[in-house]
């Protein structure tokens, strides 16, 4: 408590009030305390002063300015600054708390001031305390990169040296910025988009060499502080091992001492940081809650964060199994709030590995475990954007990595040098060609006028620069700079659309069979290499802050620009297309079977570009390579595969939070769906979210999302179709979907899968197999029409599809869709039809589309006594009837969900499958078949028969189709003539005998008999 020595009474009273506020002393206890701290000759005079009111009345800002004029922190410590501030503040009466707090923070040094503002202290006392702590941490190395042993706890016998757990502070003059939100990772797609637009990854401003962000950030992580004194915490925990985690592990950055890998815990994919700066292992509290991990009560543990602050972790998750790419890790983890990762593996795990080889440049490590060794396969580094209240993360700006130069042979280089002019910068307008861009407006459209935007000050100079360059060169071709694009949305709405056909990428790739050498050319700002029609030039007018301008070349952003450009490219390369050239807008692919051919082809393409004054971007071209990236695919002589960069973007895609984000993810994965077996079945829970008012994320959607990400990492290389050889289609169907594989010489060319609707699932096996054939043929019509192909199916009767004489209506409907095709159908046993069998027979993630709440049903089954007993038997491996198995915590019988016979869900299921739209009050057999395809319980068939018999609607509207039971009487044929007036039972019909008749109908029944037969044999036939 402050001691009064006779000077500055009001300042002392102010400091005492702050002391009481911090210590929680209230009421009468306030007046008991000061008498013990009076010293000096003026002490008796202070006894009569009342604590609370101060001597000088401060008037708002005047009082604040008065303190500020008297107070300068300069090079003093924060404690001295606090003492001086309290002395001056004590002389002001009734100055608002917020004014004092703001004045105190303004007087701090810049780095402390910014950090305190980020933490948003609630009171002046808290702000003072935070400032003192941060200043003390800084003076002892708490906010600096230090390798010294200044902390007394680090000299203990249990301390294990690690890399520094704190991160260096950036420039002291840096201003802090950024507020609220959640940590957000920049995916590869976002990085690529920003890089293509020349936007800074951190500030979204224009990036150029030497660029500096307007607002820099301090690399420090701020967390809620513990109210107890930090010195007391250090004393209380001095006997424990120091538990530390680096700042970068919390923030989500990847400095040189950390690497990231994608692993799994309990089937859930997690992002793991291998951090040599963390002393122990940590798991995010969100992961603990999601997986329901058990937290052992081992007491609270204080964790020192990278900025010197402390965080409390309660309990330990013991024996957590973490599945790494090539091994399993069983470790204990401390639950902690982790901003940029799900799991942190620290020194506690790393030191168990023994000797290892670590390459920090490639972020890869190799270690040995007995006779086995594991290799870390890290993902690409994730950037983290500051979006969390109380967290501040520094992002270093970085330029795009320059790929290593491709090796070009001397022969190819000679061809390039001979046509070097096509890679130069054009100096004027493009020539007049037959293809000039026209803007045709709807009749009666008035002139388009759009009010210009208010541009940020930082962009005005760039706009002037770009306009000046285009005035000089007619178009902007500088790489790495801003791309000039006018907002033509209003003009596009009034423009008549050009329906020029754009090439289909799959059709382009189908032309590459047999090619082994590839070259890719990219045109420089291709749109600007086409002139505008003179009469349409005024329509391109735009305004900036310094004037009006018109485009003489085709600008970016016009609705028909793509069609005009593709039309020009098709015209220019028409003699070469599909021979050795493919063109998709500005991307030109030259392909050849041999190097000799390729040199000729390259020279021909270069000459076409020269003749038409089209210019290529040398930096984006590659020549005479065994494989190239083209239109999102990797093409080579072995076939076509997905681009790893696109696959990585899918794997790193965050869980969608909006319908638009989900649509983006499905659009990216759907682009490669022909590479994925069972894509439709896997993506079904996600595509259901696209329906109107159906977006509601669930665990089932998360599971499908993770599974789709996982399968995208294992997409195969598909063979390129050879139209000189026979195509083979293998098809299969199950109760849930159909699947097919298009093959050539045993190699897959494409996969197809389709989830059946509710009505289609009710069809017979034969009809579903036929449907699979028809859908597959229609899917691959461009490959099959006009040539003979082979169809393989595991339905033997389909071999005679085209030879059957008596067919049903459905058979005629589906068979008619195959008219015009030439094919043979052969039988292939199901056990040999593994690929398509997997496409069709895997159940979708929902059992049916009926109104039953399956989630609630599954929860009820967990508490069912009979089901619990079955689970225990299956887990212990006890004897059970064949067909039972445990899958995902549910008991299945031949793939069907097992219910307790007394379950309340059985009547609900019956009403859905019998009374509902799907059922239509069907009979016993059909109702049983529908329900048996989904669920099973003991005595199922008899229960369904009973419930159908008790159905009121069926009893009122249906009648029995069976004769009533009665005694059947047989008569001797010798009595026929006397009793019924019939002729002798022997009738002159070859091979037939009149055997019996009924009294009511007088109808005679004839049964064929084999020769020889006699009267006695005929008589026996009656009985």
From TrEMBL:
Residues 139-153 have a biased composition (Polar residues). This is Reverse transcriptase domain-containing protein. Residues 138-159 are annotated as: Disordered. It comes from the Eukaryota. Residues 439-635 form the Reverse transcriptase domain. The keyword Hydrolase applies. PANTHER family: PROTEIN CBG26694 (PTHR37984), PROTEIN NYNRIN-LIKE (PTHR37984:SF5). One of its GO terms (biological process) is proteolysis. GO terms for molecular function: endonuclease activity; peptidase activity; RNA-directed DNA polymerase activity. Keywords: Endonuclease, Hydrolase, Multifunctional enzyme, Nuclease, Nucleotidyltransferase, Protease, RNA-directed DNA polymerase, Transferase. InterPro entries: DNA/RNA_pol_sf, Integrase_H2C2, Peptidase_aspartic_dom_sf, Retrovirus_Pol_polyprotein, Rev_trsase/Diguanyl_cyclase, RT_dom, RT_RNaseH_2.
């Amino acid at each position: 408590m402050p001691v009064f020595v006779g000077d500055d009474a009001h300042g002392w009273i102010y400091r005492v009030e702050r002391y009481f506020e911090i210590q929680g002393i209230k009421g009468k206890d306030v007046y008991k305390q000061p008498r013990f701290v009076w010293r000096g000759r003026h002490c008796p005079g202070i006894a009569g002063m009342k604590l609370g009111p101060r001597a000088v009345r401060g008037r708002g800002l005047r009082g604040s300015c008065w303190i500020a004029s008297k107070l300068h922190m300069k090079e003093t410590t924060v404690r001295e600054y606090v003492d001086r501030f309290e002395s001056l503040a004590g002389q002001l009466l009734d100055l608002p708390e917020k004014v004092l707090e703001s004045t105190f923070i303004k007087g701090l040094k810049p780095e402390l001031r910014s950090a305190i503002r980020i933490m948003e202290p609630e009171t002046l006392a808290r702000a003072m305390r935070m400032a003192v702590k941060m200043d003390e941490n800084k003076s002892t190395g708490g906010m600096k990169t230090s390798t010294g042993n200044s902390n007394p706890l680090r000299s203990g016998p249990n301390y294990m040296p690690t890399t520094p757990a704190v991160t260096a502070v950036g420039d002291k003059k840096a201003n802090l910025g950024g507020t609220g939100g959640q940590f957000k990772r920049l995916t590869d797609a976002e990085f690529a988009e920003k890089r293509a637009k020349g936007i800074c990854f951190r500030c979204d401003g224009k990036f150029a060499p030497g660029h500096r962000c307007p607002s820099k950030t301090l690399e420090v992580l701020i967390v809620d502080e513990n109210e107890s004194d930090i010195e007391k915490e250090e004393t209380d925990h001095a006997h424990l091992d120091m538990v530390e985690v680096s700042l970068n592990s919390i923030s989500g950055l990847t400095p040189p001492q950390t690497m990231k890998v994608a692993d799994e815990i309990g089937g859930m994919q997690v992002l793991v940081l291998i951090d040599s700066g963390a002393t122990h292992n940590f798991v995010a509290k969100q992961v603990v809650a999601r997986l329901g991990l058990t937290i052992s009560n081992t007491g609270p543990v204080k964790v020192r964060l990278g900025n010197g602050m402390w965080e409390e972790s309660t309990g330990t998750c013991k024996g957590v199994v973490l599945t790494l790419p090539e091994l399993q890790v069983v470790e204990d983890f401390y639950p902690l709030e982790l901003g940029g990762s799900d799991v942190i593996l620290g020194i506690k795990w790393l030191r168990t590995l023994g000797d290892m080889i670590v390459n920090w440049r490639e972020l890869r490590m190799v270690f040995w475990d007995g006779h086995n060794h594991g290799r870390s396969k890290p993902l690409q580094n994730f950037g983290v954007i500051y979006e969390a209240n109380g967290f501040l993360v520094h992002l270093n700006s970085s330029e795009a990595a320059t790929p290593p130069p491709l090796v070009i042979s001397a022969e190819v280089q000679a061809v390039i040098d001979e046509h070097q002019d096509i890679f130069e910068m054009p100096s004027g307008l493009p020539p007049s060609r037959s293809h000039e861009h026209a803007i045709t407006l709807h009749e009666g459209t008035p002139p388009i006028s759009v009010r210009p935007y208010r541009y940020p000050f930082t962009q005005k100079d760039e706009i002037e620069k770009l306009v000046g360059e285009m005035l000089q060169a007619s178009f902007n071709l500088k790489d790495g700079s801003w791309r000039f694009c006018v907002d033509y949305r209003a003009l596009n709405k009034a423009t008549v659309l050009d329906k020029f056909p754009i090439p289909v990428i799959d059709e382009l790739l189908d032309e590459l069979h047999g090619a082994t050498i590839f070259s890719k050319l990219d045109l420089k700002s291709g749109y600007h290499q086409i002139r505008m029609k003179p009469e349409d030039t005024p329509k391109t007018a735009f305004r900036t802050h310094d004037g009006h301008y018109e485009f003489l070349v085709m600008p970016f952003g016009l609705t028909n620009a793509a069609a005009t450009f593709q039309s020009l490219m098709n015209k220019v390369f028409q003699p070469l297309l599909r021979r050795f050239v493919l063109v998709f807008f500005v991307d030109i692919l030259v392909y050849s079977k041999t190097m000799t051919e390729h040199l000729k082809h390259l020279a021909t393409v270069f000459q076409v570009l020269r003749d038409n004054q089209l210019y290529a971007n040398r930096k984006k071209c590659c020549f005479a390579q065994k494989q190239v990236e083209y239109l999102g695919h990797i093409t080579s002589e072995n076939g076509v595969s997905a681009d790893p960069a696109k696959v990585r973007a899918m794997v790193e895609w965050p869980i969608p939070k909006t319908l638009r984000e989900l649509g983006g993810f499905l659009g990216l994965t759907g682009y490669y769906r022909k590479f994925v077996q069972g894509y439709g079945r896997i993506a079904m829970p996600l595509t259901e979210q696209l329906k109107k008012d159906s977006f509601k994320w669930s665990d089932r959607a998360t599971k499908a999302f993770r599974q789709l990400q996982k399968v995208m990492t294992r997409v195969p290389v598909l063979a390129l179709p050879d139209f000189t050889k026979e195509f083979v289609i293998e098809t299969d169907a199950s109760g849930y979907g159909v699947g097919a594989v298009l093959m050539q010489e045993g190699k897959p060319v494409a996969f197809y899968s389709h989830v059946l609707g509710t009505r289609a699932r009710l069809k017979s096996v034969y009809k579903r197999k036929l449907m699979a054939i028809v859908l597959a043929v229609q899917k691959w019509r461009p490959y099959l029409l006009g040539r003979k192909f082979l169809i393989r199916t595991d339905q033997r009767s389909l071999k005679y599809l085209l030879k059957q004489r008596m067919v049903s209506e459905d058979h005629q409907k589906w068979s008619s869709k195959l008219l015009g095709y030439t094919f043979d159908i052969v039988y292939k046993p199901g056990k040999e039809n593994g690929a398509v069998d997997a496409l069709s027979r895997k159940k979708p993630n929902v059992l049916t589309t009926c109104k039953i709440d399956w989630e609630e049903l599954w929860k009820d089954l967990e508490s069912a006594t009979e089901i619990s007993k079955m689970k225990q038997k299956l887990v212990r491996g006890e004897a059970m009837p064949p067909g039972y198995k445990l899958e995902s915590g549910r008991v299945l019988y031949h793939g069907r969900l097992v219910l307790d016979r007394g379950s309340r869900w059985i009547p609900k299921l019956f009403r859905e499958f019998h009374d509902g739209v799907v059922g239509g009050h069907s009979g016993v057999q059909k109702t049983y078949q529908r329900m048996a395809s989904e669920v099973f319980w003991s005595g199922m068939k008899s229960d369904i028969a009973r419930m159908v018999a008790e159905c009121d609607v069926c009893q009122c509207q249906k009648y029995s189709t069976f004769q009533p039971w009665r005694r059947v009487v047989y008569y001797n044929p010798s009595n026929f003539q006397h009793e019924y007036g019939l002729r002798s039972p022997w009738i002159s019909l070859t091979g037939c005998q009149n055997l019996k008749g009924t009294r009511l109908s007088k109808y005679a029944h004839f049964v064929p008999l084999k020769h020889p037969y006699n009267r006695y044999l005929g008589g026996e036939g009656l009985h």
